[in-house]
Amino acid sequence: INGQPGDLYNCSAKETVVVPINSGETSLLRVINAALNQPLFFAVANHKLTVVGADASYLKPFTTNVLMLGPGQTTDVLLTADQPPKRYYIAARAYQSAQNAPFDNTTTTAILQYNKTTTTSPPIVPVLPAFNDTNTVTSFSRKFKSLRNVVVPKTIDDNLFFTIGLGLDNCPKNFPKSRCQGLNGTRFTASMNNVSFVLPSNFSLLQAHSNGIPGVFTTDFPATPPVKFDYTGNNISRALFQPVKGTKVYKLKYGSRVQVVLQDTNIVTSENHPIHLHGYDFYIVAQGFGNFNPKKDTSKFNLVDPPLRNTVAVPVNGWAVIRFVADNPGVWLMHCHLDVHIKWGLAMAFLVDNGVGELETLKAPPHDLPVC
């Protein structure tokens, strides 16, 4: 927390962050999950947290004992110092949804310290959910609503369905076993719609697009999965475990109204994936478990006051639906905010065309921009 693991770790016991507060005072806490690979539960012992915003957008306030944030997500909360003047742990620990995957099951701490409190008294410990408590995550995420009614795209121009998840690659013959730690000596990979994204090595996507440089990317990212299957089932064909590799983008016209269904898969294992979109905020109109069913699940859409965010936590073995208007021209990456997953290829990019006039046009990068 703020650069220190906390006093449950010997290495930082003396440098644990202390947050002073006066009795009766209300403070705004901006909580950011800056971890690379781990969603986190967050709580302050004996104190209620009133959520008022997330990802820089206001929300209808609601009170909770615990937050859950995926990597890169932010949550703004109000905390009132209404407890006896003592010392209280501020604590965070992992939420781990992937079955049998190793993770750091320790707890990081800071201390909320009421002024005029002796520093010798041990801090009060909060109750944090179990590491695999998906019910708490679901209950928390369902409380998110925009502060006021909002204008959500009702007519959809680009209706997209993206599967997201892991996979396995065959180990290259020249690789040592230490670099192939997947099942049966394979290498872990990840993909969207069976395409494992390869970051370009010489030019940025925007440079290649603006300057007409060939061979950097293609515009054939699939709008739907190439193969339909029981995405969250337990008997997925091994033929689906190895995705194709490519630097593929999906083209959008300026002003296009976009809906994306993000469907988790149980290839290798299912997991809660924090999916982040560069260049845009979007409305999360629905989330659920199992395979998304357009005939039934559209009735669950909140088109009145859905939350506006830039990162959506797609539920483990479930789905999320987002909507936005493509009014920011350029090339924008959509990827899993678990750092290891983007390295494995869990990403794609939208290429949004220019509109009409200077205000709807992105200028090309300068020709002397240094290459990657």
Automatic annotation (TrEMBL):
UniProt keyword list: Apoplast, Copper, Glycoprotein, Lignin degradation, Metal-binding, Oxidoreductase, Repeat, Secreted
Record-level GO cellular component terms: apoplast
Protein's cellular compartments: Secreted, Extracellular space, Apoplast
Coiled-coil ranges from the UniProt annotation: none
Example GO BP: lignin catabolic process
Cofactor dependence: Cu cation
Secreted in keyword set: yes
Enzyme class: oxidoreductase
Gene3D superfamilies: Cupredoxins - blue copper proteins
One Pfam family this sequence matches: Cu-oxidase
Catalytic activity: 4 hydroquinone + O2 = 4 benzosemiquinone + 2 H2O
Matches recorded under PANTHER family: LACCASE-12, MULTI-COPPER OXIDASE
Family: Belongs to the multicopper oxidase family.
Name this polypeptide is given: laccase
